[in-house]
């Protein structure tokens, strides 16, 4: 069957059906390897995967039980989807048609994990904790159904969206999920930074291959993560308190207005950079704002709170609940997940400049500045102090060459930030000033080596 005749259908439906026809055409012309994966963004129900399988079947890309031309890949990115993974995937595995599709694909289920929206929803530490524990849960689910799991990590370029050293991320994966198959995204400026220079590209690939081999060897020796229950409980306590602190911030009256005034989000929305459009609904709310412009705006203002906000509150809550710094230091030394998470947050803290961020805060209305910026400063100081204490070092950055790079870069970026705040503070701008404002966004992004 084909969807060639779509007259009478609404435009969205017609476009969807045409895409499945094109999928079938391309596979026939170039082979199934040309397009063999269909990722379902915001997958939260089993029906989301079954709908794709049905449409692919109707277009001819699937002929069950003998043939299935695509991997149907749910993208789990919200807290509800991650926590509901057993119901979603278990229901699919028990479905006869889906089971036939899996069998035709070698009984391998690929699941994509979203780092961006989970971070925007829950804050940095809570999002990373949710992803860690749900990866272990997914491994248990596929094991129960005798299916092989391939995780696809949807990492962004920035720390706030799952970025950071790839080799360290691979070594920090739960042993249960390290089965020799792994996928991940490299996107945005990270591609140029890691692969534009052949020598750097070769070194980066060597590090990733080394990490994957080491992680696989470790998983073969110890198939399940042997993490002490005390450490798991500590991480859960930190995550719960960090999530509460972060979501309380987003729920504060006037937060969206502060975000509009104290960051260049209105300028970023007009640029051909990042996700388009910036908001899914066209309305300015944190929930509907896409993750890239969200992080991009905070990075521009040098207050990179998506990469650290809530961490200090979470750790402090654990300590107030009877936890000890010594336990946290032991977790840092011997638990790769915890160490990598703390190091990545420390890097985001190191790239934050609260003096420059205060210039952006001053652009906002006085009452908004007084309400929010002291909260940011307090959490920044708390998180920075606790991160260095847990890592047992004086500097947030543990690599000397990176500290040298930051110190050398900042004097060139700072004037662009100051110019940007002056331009943002104007009610009316000439065409020249509008162009200058757009150029400051691009210049700061180049200097920070990061958009969103």
UniProtKB/TrEMBL annotation:
InterPro entries: PEP_COase, Pyrv/PenolPyrv_kinase-like_dom
Keywords: Pyruvate
SUPFAM superfamilies in the record: Phosphoenolpyruvate/pyruvate domain
GO molecular function: phosphoenolpyruvate carboxylase activity
Gene Ontology annotations for the cellular component aspect, listed alphabetically: cytosol
GO terms (BP aspect): carbon fixation; tricarboxylic acid cycle
Protein name: Phosphoenolpyruvate carboxylase
């Amino acid at each position: 069957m084909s969807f060639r005749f779509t007259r009478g259908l609404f435009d969205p439906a017609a476009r969807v059906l045409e895409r499945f026809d094109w999928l079938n055409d391309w596979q026939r012309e170039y082979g199934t390897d040309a397009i063999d994966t269909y990722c379902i963004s915001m997958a939260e129900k089993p029906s989301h995967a079954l709908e794709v399988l049905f449409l692919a079947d109707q277009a001819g890309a699937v002929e069950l039980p003998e043939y299935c031309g695509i991997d149907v890949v749910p993208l789990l990115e919200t807290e509800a989807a991650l926590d509901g993974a057993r119901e979603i995937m278990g229901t699919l595995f028990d479905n006869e048609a889906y089971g036939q599709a899996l069998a035709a694909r070698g009984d391998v289920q690929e699941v994509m994990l979203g780092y961006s929206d989970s971070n925007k929803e829950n804050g940095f530490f809570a999002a990373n904790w949710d992803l860690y524990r749900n990866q272990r849960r997914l491994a248990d689910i596929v094991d129960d159904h005798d299916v092989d799991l391939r995780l696809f990590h949807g990492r962004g370029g920035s720390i706030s969206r799952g970025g950071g050293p790839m080799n360290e991320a691979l070594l920090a994966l739960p042993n249960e999920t390290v089965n020799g198959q792994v996928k991940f995204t490299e996107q945005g400026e990270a591609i140029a930074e890691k692969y534009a220079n052949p020598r750097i590209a070769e070194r980066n690939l060597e590090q990733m291959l080394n990490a994957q081999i080491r992680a696989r060897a470790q998983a073969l020796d110890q198939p399940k993560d042997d993490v002490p229950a005390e450490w798991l409980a500590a991480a859960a306590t930190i995550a719960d308190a960090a999530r509460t602190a972060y979501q309380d911030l987003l729920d504060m009256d006037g937060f969206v207005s502060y975000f509009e005034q104290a960051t260049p989000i209105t300028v970023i929305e007009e640029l051909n950079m990042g996700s388009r459009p910036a908001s899914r609904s066209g309305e300015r709310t944190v929930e509907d704002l896409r993750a890239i412009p969200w992080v991009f705006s905070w990075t521009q203002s040098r207050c990179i709170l998506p990469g650290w906000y809530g961490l200090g509150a979470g750790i402090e809550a654990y300590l107030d609940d009877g936890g000890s710094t010594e336990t946290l230091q032991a977790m840092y030394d011997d638990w790769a997940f915890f160490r990598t998470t703390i190091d990545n947050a420390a890097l985001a803290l190191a790239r934050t400049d609260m003096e420059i961020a205060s210039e952006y805060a001053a652009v906002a209305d006085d009452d908004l500045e007084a309400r929010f910026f002291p909260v940011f400063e307090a959490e920044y100081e708390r998180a920075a102090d606790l991160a260095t204490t847990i890592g047992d070092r004086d500097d947030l950055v543990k690599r000397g060459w990176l500290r040298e790079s930051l110190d050398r870069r900042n004097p060139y970026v700072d004037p662009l930030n100051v110019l940007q705040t002056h331009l943002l503070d104007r009610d009316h701008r000439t065409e020249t000033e509008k162009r200058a404002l757009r150029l400051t966004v691009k210049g700061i992004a180049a200097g920070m080596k990061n958009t969103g």
